[in-house]
Design brief:
It is a multi-pass membrane protein. With 264 residues, this protein is mostly helical. It has helices spanning 6-25, 28-49, 60-89, 92-97, 103-131, 140-168, 171-174, 178-186, 199-206, 209-221, 231-234, 236-260. The radius of gyration is 19 Å and the shape is elongated.
Amino acid sequence: MTTLSPATSLRDTATLTGRVLRHWQRSPVTILIGLLFPVLMVLMFGYLFGGAMAVPDGDYMDFLIPGMLAMTMLFGLEAMVIAVTTDTAKGVTERIRAMPVTTTAILAGRSAADLLNAVVGLAVMVLTGLLVGWTAHRGLPLTLAALGLLVWLRFAFTWIGIYLGLLLKTPESAVSVQILVWPVGFLSSAFVSPGTMPGWLGTIAAWNPLSATATAIRQLFGNPDWNAHGWPTEHAVALALIWPALLTAIFLPLAARRYRALSR
């Protein structure tokens, strides 16, 4: 790898982003399943379990959709780990490293492609929400702000996924990421209020980065919550900005360092 100009680095980033998109184009079924899985969860939780959920001042579906939008951002972490480990196992990563491109372009290309996938996933989920009766009540600017918080969360999860993928190295070991993804997802306010959990568990759930974003976008959309009180709820928008920034500040440098150390 060599030191290149910013313009060349941007061009390399675009090229490597295109590589990932072309790979997805050749595997449409995998992408389709990834997009439809959150839709299935909305239907399952909304219609099978939703009748048992009583949300104060609102409908459970209006509570569920923001939570599922946040969960959709988390689901991308596992896919990222598998993609990175697959490239490493097939020797693709080493071949790219031998080319005159910067580490920034290589990792940024993967991240940019994932964010594009996240935007498509958000569009599918928003359409699904509208079809099942969900509505954003507070106007276009706040709705766009909520969607921006979701993409910001996904950006942080992307770098966690890249780092774990470089750390684990093989697709088989990437399955272990499920042990991380599912507890983080369900130990949150995505589906139920942390106030319904045992005290210590509810505290962990309330401070979960996923809960911060889910609560923040409910407030921005004007959707119902369980009217819980406490610092994490009252400052949810601030936490939804801070948590991804903190995670990115930790895992982006770790991913770059791990990538540089692959050949050692």
